Amino acid sequence: MSSPATVHRKTWSAAPAGFFEVEAAGLRWLGEATDAGGARVVQVHGVGADHIELERLHPAAPGAAAAEGLGRGLAATHRLGAPAFGAPPTGWTGPAWIGRQPQTNDPTATWGAFYAEQRVRPFVRRALDRGHLDAAGARVVDRVCDRLAGGEFDDGTPPARIHGDLWAGNVVFVAGEAVLIDPAAHGGHGLTDLAMLHLFGCPGLERVTAAYADAADLPAGWRGLLELHQLHPLAVHAASHGPAYAAQLVQAASTYA
């Protein structure tokens, strides 16, 4: 049995059914890649309806080697793949969330259709309904979603095993390495994880990026696609945090509209 000193317990008494269980499933699914050189993921010690028990991490100053290891490891995790775009973690068939906002993980034949219909449009509708985004801005994003759903940005890349919520707060640097926490794991496009790191920043980001680019099979012109892959987190924040993110969402979408 693990001692309290080695376990971190996260609780939420009002957690909806499946909230912590899908987090545990995502961590275990991502963790399958670790032995094959994938990014290290926090270990799950236990899970219940209102809590999850995790390996206790001891943060340390981020170093160059850890940043480069994160880039290489992330590429290896992505290569392990997923059954389909939108596929949930193995063994999980229930609901999904990003942070505390619900989203779906329904397997889809193409990345563009999945990304438009399950990652961008639902949050655009929420932002619009909450008054955080106006109708004109929503139409700009919707035009990009039409292009996505129509396959214009599909590049033949197979589904990657992605973290799905990879901002700096979900990367914990410990002694000599980085550890991933709090995923919204699913089958997606690997560039989505990298794009989120670029959106919100990360210690050693250029080293992470260079190592990832060296290890991954990135599509041609990938830097020009980063804002496309940032539409989801921007839409999520527009729905939850307000008009400032909505303006950033419309600006990013304008690049592709």
Summarize the structure in words:
44% of the residues lie in helices and 14% in strands. The protein has 257 residues and is an alpha+beta fold. The strands form four sheets. A three-stranded antiparallel β-sheet has the order 1-4-3, with helices on one face. It has a domain at 57-84 and 109-254: Aminoglycoside phosphotransferase (APH), C-terminal lobe (Aminoglycoside 3'-phosphotransferase, Chain: A, domain 2). The protein is globular. Keywords: Kinase, Transferase.
How does the SSE layout of this entry go?
Elements lengths: L6 E5 L7 H13 L8 E2 L2 E5 L2 E5 L8 H17 L15 E3 L2 E3 L7 H19 L5 H15 L10 E3 L8 E4 L2 E4 L5 E3 L1 H11 L4 H11 L10 H4 L1 H11 L1 H12 L3
Helix pairs in contact: 2-6, 3-4, 3-8, 4-9, 8-9
Summarize the structure in short:
The chain has 257 residues and is α+β, with helices and mostly antiparallel strands. The protein is built from 9 helices and 10 strands. A hairpin with a 2-residue loop joins strand 3 and strand 4.
